[in-house]
Write a structure and sequence with these properties.
The protein has 386 residues and is α+β, with helices and mostly antiparallel strands. It has helices spanning 48-57, 78-86, 117-135, 340-364; strands at 9-12, 22-30, 60-66, 89-92, 108-113, 140-148, 155-158, 184-187, 191-195, 200-202, 211-212, 220-223, 227-237, 240-251, 254-266, 275-281, 289-291, 295-306, 309-319, 331-333. The protein is elongated and about 130 Å long. It is a single-pass membrane protein.
Length: 386
């Protein structure tokens, strides 16, 4: 086991814009008592059976992915250091995990940490605290790894000594993911959300100003058997980072999007407790849904709310579970096959058709005489009985 301040190896990579991110070592595991006394082989890493048992025994697993080049030390990650000091932890220098946490724990989740080291530290501490609040202290397994968009292109760099720093020519990798100004959240082959205008978030309904989420990073997708999430991180302003998790539920050949998780973090604050974590819901009748393989489209506003926190989506088209496709499937429109004007037209037409039918029946019921008078014939007489 090594001390927390490890910096002998730094992994450098480039963000290529792909949403299909991979993760690699070195790894830091913490949070559960099963890690106590664990010895790690420097050459082989952690045993596969031990990893599978570790994932299965934990109430939840949270994998944090760093894409920065800064060292993991006390100055950059003070909040994370305080978390590590309270739990058992194990450091492994292995490059890859032999088992995927998502395959062994239904509550496993992957979170991309973006921004400066201070921002990553605040976000990691806040999200891990929320997980322990939901599943219990010392029941959540935390894993810190490095994010790689192309895992086969890696560059290893030895930490520069003080007298070598001035002559080092190794280029530094990016510390932040690229920002996009559109409202298209696309994970190739996995899920797409397209909105004609940026989402609007109101944290307090009494505020006059709303937060327009018009700048986002690369989206990621967390797929499960009965539920999946499309995760998008927004930068509202210099000190505020917002993460939306669009939750898709699959049941009986249909999918739906009834909830959106909102994480709002003040990246300038050193206090990890100063964060907003709330789940927004929409009226069941208005929730987007469609058969598997179909996309959902709606031109009216969709409003997700929880108390004073409101998320507004305008003119949306969405589809999870693309199964490798890069385009929307057939559209399932929220308007449906009939509208109020159509029903009104059908009612008026039916009323007129009934009146026409009655008139025709009355005309057909008229019986004219079958004999007629003439000047040369006998006068016709009719006997009328009272």
């Amino acid at each position: 086991m090594v001390k927390f301040g490890f910096g002998a190896v730094i992994l450098l990579g480039s963000v290529l814009g792909s949403a299909l991110a991979h993760y690699s070592g070195p790894f830091l595991f913490w949070g559960v008592s099963d890690l106590k006394g664990v010895q790690v082989s420097a050459l082989e890493g952690l045993d596969d059976k031990f990893l599978r048992d570790l994932y299965s025994n934990a109430a939840a697993v949270v994998v944090f992915l760093r894409n920065g080049t800064s060292q993991l030390n006390d100055d950059n990650f003070p909040s994370f250091r305080r978390i590590i000091e309270k739990h058992e932890y194990v450091y492994s220098a292995q490059e890859e995990l032999s088992s995927n946490p998502l395959d062994y724990n239904v509550n496993a989740e992957i979170i991309n940490l973006v921004g400066s080291p201070t921002q990553q530290d605040v976000e990691l501490a806040a999200l891990y605290r929320d997980s322990t609040a939901n599943y219990g202290e010392r029941k959540v397994l935390g894993i810190l790894a490095s994010r790689w968009d192309e895992p086969h292109h890696r560059l290893y760099k030895r930490e520069a000594k003080p007298d070598e720093s001035a002559t080092s020519t190794t280029p530094a990798g990016p510390t932040e993911e690229p920002e996009m100004d559109d409202a298209i959240y696309n994970v190739a082959g996995k899920a797409i959300i397209y909105i004609t205008s940026a989402p609007i978030l109101s944290v307090n309904s009494t505020d006059e100003e709303n937060i327009v989420l018009n700048k986002h990073t690369v989206a990621t997708y967390d797929s499960r058997e009965s539920e999946s999430k499309l995760i998008v991180t927004f930068k509202a302003e210099d000190t505020t980072k917002i993460t939306l998790k669009f939750r898709f539920e699959m049941d009986a050949g249909y999918w739906s999007m009834p909830k959106v998780d909102v994480f709002l973090i003040d990246t300038k604050s050193k206090d990890a407790s100063k964060t907003t974590d709330v789940t927004l819901e929409i009226n069941e009748a208005d929730a987007p849904y469609a058969p598997m393989g179909f996309s959902y489209s709606c031109s009216r506003q969709l409003i997700y709310r929880n108390g004073s926190t409101i998320l507004t989506l305008e003119n949306i088209q969405v589809q999870p579970s693309l199964n490798g496709s890069t385009k929307f499937g057939s559209t399932w429109d929220c308007v449906g096959f009939t509208t109020a004007p159509i029903w009104s037209g059908l009612f008026v037409t039916s009323f007129m058709a009934v009146g026409m039918a009655l008139a025709i029946c009355a005309i057909l019921d008229i019986k004219p005489p079958n004999r007629f008078e003439s000047r040369t014939g006998k006068q016709l007489t009719f006997t009328v009985q009272e």
